[in-house]
Design a protein that fits this description.
mainly alpha
Length: 270
Amino acid sequence: MLQHLLFKALFMMSRNRAEYLSLLFARPLPRDFKKWNDRPIRDLVDYFDRTPLDQRLADKLKLEVHKKLASFGLMLSQRDLETIDEIYQAFYTDCLEVRYTIRDRPTGRSFPAYRDLMLEKDLEGRHRNYLATEADFQVIKSLQDRNLIIPITADLSGQKAVRAIGEFLKEINEKVSAFYVSNVEFYLWRYDTMLRFVENLKSLPIDDKSVIIRSYFNYAYYTNVHPQTIDNSFSVQILQTIDSMLKDYSSDRPYDSYWDLATRRSLELN
């Protein structure tokens, strides 16, 4: 949640994606940054790769981020602010080499750097991340400026957050279009709380097009590789309609394993 509040502050402080990355990595802007709106993502990567950290800028930006956070009207503790500073420091210290890590728990795997994520392409060879074009960036910035991206921390099988979101969506007459759960359901199976998550799903306003999006990690849970895996990838993104999942749980043949859940009714993605 605190990391997303940092992102929100930086989005609201920036005018375009070049300025956003300048703020995120505490690097000086290109002199003609207003002309960079049409530049390809590779140009931005090359610029920030060769531009050194400006520590005085970083120190100044931390204070400006604190001021922006204060304007949100949230009750952030001193420890919250220190944690945000630690997260921010990771970004501007490592710049495009910043990457996901698990503290005190070596995994033996190397996770992609920010640079790799910016330059990754889809199966048709196109950049798809929100920094790929200025238009894509402005979509996310507009959502942030209008407070339409709301960070929430929660237990998906808990009794409060998911149901509260459902009540809010009902109040404003909206449906859930997509619910991204990553691989959390694997852990719900492990701790025998999956049925509580199912009850929470029942509280959400959905239609027949509402989908749940999963990240399935091959080799991490089963020796089987998910049938939708492409090129022996370590992970695969899969979709299922929420309605079909709930119907299966209400039938005489509910899912008997995480593998069953991840494979029985996955939508074909072409």
